[in-house]
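To: structure desk
From: M.T.
Subject: fold request, one chain
Message: Could you run this one when you get a chance? Sequence is below, nothing fancy, just the single chain.
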Amino acid sequence: LGAVRANRGIAMNGRLGGRIDAFDMNLAARSPLLTVGSLPLNSLNATASLKGLPGRPSATLKAAAAMNGQPASLDIRAATTGGSIQLQDGLLQLPGTTLRADGDLAFDGPAFTGKAELRSTDLRPLGRALDLDLAGKASVQAVLSVEKETQAVRFEGRGEALDIRGTTVGRADLKGDTAFPGPLRETDMQVDLADVAHAPLRADHLNARLSGSGDGLEVRLDLREDSTKTLLKAHGMLEKDFGRALLDSTHGTLLGHELRLE
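Reply: Done. Structure tokens follow.
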């Protein structure tokens, strides 16, 4: 998330109750402007309740703020279970969008085992909150696990009537796997798009397979555009820093004529 800065200060108060060997704590915080990385949070109000200190406490966290003018709220219930924190139905909400997560976060490393789900009936408020040109509907489900000392992620999602920085997609389906650190090596993702357009280009169907390698992402593309009798297959490599794409072969039919580039 990056550095957290209280640009205009932060006010906090708290209260303790109970015995020294078994007590509860309630905290409240307010800030007119808090910046997390490059993301500004205006009019932040947060409360936290911890019960069962100092042993294995449970906690409830509630927060509300405006993200680039969009109202957002966070609600988390958690409990400690030996070597991990058990997240119980964490919920982040913006207008039209919810993100839910539950699972276990290990103390000895950034390893999360559980599941997460994003559902949005209108991506525009989320786009404004993140300062992105974004519209449409989307749902994404992810299952997270720990495999070979890496954070493995298996995901599946669908989008409808998407508009991403001027590129429109009638329908999008994706599924795949990745892992951190070194996500490129462990990535295997399938993307299927219908009714894709970025003026003056368009395609009725675009299918992409992305597979990780030591040099970046290997990409295989299949494109079909019926009105121009175009059917193309391409293979290439997207470099590690995503700064350059290398195309090593293209073949098929372009505007009704055979095409082959290698």
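Reply (cont.): The radius of gyration is 23 Å. Let me know if you need anything else for the meeting.
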